[in-house]
Amino acid sequence: MPEGDTVYLVGKRFERALAGKTLLRGQFRVPQLATVDLAGRDVLGVGTVGKHLFTRFSGDLTLHSHLMMDGMWDVYAAGAKWRRPGHHARVVLTAADVQVIGFRVHDLKLVPTAKEHDLVAHLGPDLLDPQWTEEHAARAAAALAADPARELGLALLDQRVLAGVGNLYKCEICFLLGVTPWTPVSEVDAETTVALSRKLLLANAASGRFDQSTTGHLDRNRKNWVYDRTRQGCFRCGGPTLVRTQGHDVQRRPTWFCPKCQSGPAPAS
């Protein structure tokens, strides 16, 4: 599933393409919205909350969408050939000079703009919220610390605790804290963990790049400390990086860590 900063950048690209323009075509290719036509509506903007996107139209109307594992909003010049199969298109938004296509996007809902919050009220504070305050940080830290026996990696992925962290950041945050993802939440400082999570997502959102770096390097083999480094080893110490599964059922994720640089429990191979 995309990280929060990826969704944020997708939203910004979408907004640059369509905000302020009038739709000539607004077609849905899903049964529940197949009869809806957005033609004639102005696109007011696109916002994100965690991994949720909200496209706002004139007439007090908002389209909610979620990328899940395989969704994407692509931008094309008017009349350009799509890079993805047409049968994967779920939403087609066309203005005079541009098309924005939602391929395999999920959880599509049209709601009054004033009701957007109802769809994300269950989420924790959004780490990329432009209105972030100390109150947001305190709420996120309290939610993280609320279950002290919970595995840190699972808590970080819980969007009800804080919204935006995906599997890559989960692994990298735990590395930078010096603990394994199976370490109980009680073993880390909640405020420090929230601040670090926000710092990493903000840095990559500000960069405008879709290939996240947590080390500050852009080279493919130097971007991350442990995530997906089974072959290269730990970027800090050079020792072997191990990968184990964390979570169950739909929450199962491959999880990388360095047994030398990170202390705490970990499953046997």
From TrEMBL:
Gene3D superfamilies: 1.10.8.50, MutM-like, N-terminal
Keyword Ligase: no
SUPFAM superfamilies linked: Glucocorticoid receptor-like (DNA-binding domain), N-terminal domain of MutM-like DNA repair proteins, S13-like H2TH domain
Domain FPG-type, chain residue ranges per copy: 225-263
This protein's UniProt keywords: DNA damage, DNA repair, DNA-binding, Glycosidase, Hydrolase, Lyase, Metal-binding, Multifunctional enzyme, Zinc, Zinc-finger
Boundaries of every Formamidopyrimidine-DNA glycosylase catalytic domain copy: 2-102
Transmembrane segments: none
Pfam families reported for this sequence: Fapy_DNA_glyco (PF01149), H2TH (PF06831)
Enzyme class, spelled out: lyase
EC nos: 4.2.99.18
InterPro entries, sorted: FPG_cat, FPG_N, H2TH_FPG, Nei2_N, Ribosomal_uS13-like_H2TH, Znf_DNA_glyclase/AP_lyase
Entries under PROSITE patterns matching the protein: FPG_CAT (PS51068), ZF_FPG_2 (PS51066)
Superkingdom of the organism of origin: Bacteria
Family stated for the protein in its record: Belongs to the FPG family.
Protein name, entry field: DNA-(apurinic or apyrimidinic site) lyase
